[in-house]
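Researcher: Structure for this, please.
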Amino acid sequence: MNTELLGIFASFIITLVIAIPLGKYLAKMFAGERVWTDFMKPIENGIYKLSGINPNEPMNWKQFLKAMMTINILWLVYGFFVLMHQDKLPLNPDGNPGMTADLSFNTIISFVVNCNLQHYSGESGASYLAQHFIFMFLHFTSAATGIACAVAVFKAFKDKTTTNLGNFWEFFVKTITRLLLPLSIVIALILTFNGTPASYAGKDQFITLQGDTAHVSRGPAAQMIAIKHLGTNGGGWFGANSAHPLENPNYLTNMTEIISQMIIPMAMILAFGYFIRRKKLGWVIFGVMMVGLLMLMIPSVSSELGGNSAIAKMGVTQATGAMEGKEVRFGPAATAYWSTLTTITSTGSVNGMHDSTMPLTGAWQLLAMMINGFFGGCGVGILNYFIYLIIAVFISGLMVGRTPEFLGHKVEAREVKIAALITLLSPLLILAGTAAAAYVFTAYGSADWAVKPSTWLNNPGYHGFSEMLYEYTSANANNGSGFEGLGDNNIWWNVTTGVVLILGRFLPIIGPVAIAGLLAQKKFIPESAGTLKVDTVTFGAMTFAVILVLNALSYFPALALGPLAEFFSMPK
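Model: Predicted structure, token format:
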């Protein structure tokens, strides 16, 4: 146990050691200052010239969002048809079939929005062409989209008054060439030299210890696994994701993957402070998020190390903790640590089965995705937190009787309305989706559908409700992990979660960018003795309280019906 905890501590420290200088680098790189990756300029200029892009063209917030949405829609259409017809395309040595229209609809939306909610099994559901030229391609572009939009918000507050939020294409291309691609190469090499496949060969044949013949899928997995974590995507090359022995062979690869999925979300928070020349504000936000992370991680680790009371009642000793659904090579502590970090970010990869974790661990996983503002995904984490910031500024202004201000700009009705709508969006999508699914399951369980609703759940009662709640929560948070007791590859789940995916991704991006653009064009108001300072510990605590209150009011009843009810029903 001490070794497991030491592994968690080492992973955490290494993550911080990498994230802090990375944050400084990102601030300089996006600000156009001299950095060591300037040797990539000729390649970037070639991309701009080939694409007919002027990277120096200024964009206001509407033009910025138009560019972002246009290219994402193009990827949706392109990927949808490739997935449906992958059986007729090359690079399919295992003969995987084309996807149905509803599964293709769900899958392509999921990968475009940085979620990777996989309703198919990786190695048997997608060809090498789809894995590489759709999924891995979108791993890069979806992460770059989120980061580019975050930098637009940074740019809005760097200058006192401006309508220029930068150029989407410049931020997008630089994110790939100077951040995602170099780091992915390093991570892929580590994985390859530790046993992760990196070839284009088809299935290999082995004789098991029992004498059976087994066919094991391979493929160029290491390349995709590197960017899936670095870009907080999470979609597994194999169906079992990072619990698969080829996707995550040993503890070194486990540490590499968990570190890689946290360094950019952490670095982006610090980059914000450095970019707008308010380092203290960046560290205050970082501190709030770190407190939130620890409040979710510590009870999760404790819950898994404490074992299962139902198993203990049978007289079974659980010296290593609750091992159901865990890989022996990692153990419950490392699995709980991973489950926390993968749900506070939008990564969604797993090195153990979340469906088998203890009820309270499941509650913390759900809450992490419901809050969706503690580090979060690449770029979008700071955007989600920005909404909480605006609401905290508004409430604080009301409390002291002053017009709310944020970094020298008045926060007025229009900005607060946008923030309120974005805040209410997540509970609407999650709770309405879960309620509709629960109603169909109970009232129309025997409906004459291709897949009867009564067959959706492998687990009845509280845990079955948690499985449905988790699916919509994961879709809305663009996370992608799941309670896999839910049978989700059918028209209901493919279509409804697809709608939640696209709304849960783009509206929370559009809202913060619009607010930042509206604030940036207002007259700058210099700080005075009565200005509400947002870079203090006090305001950080206020923002943290706003986050807790809003999410408790929104989600506690649903959590009480699912994981909390399951916990209290267990034998003591």
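Researcher: Any notable elements?
Model: The longest strand covers residues 204-207. The first helix runs from residue 2 to 30.
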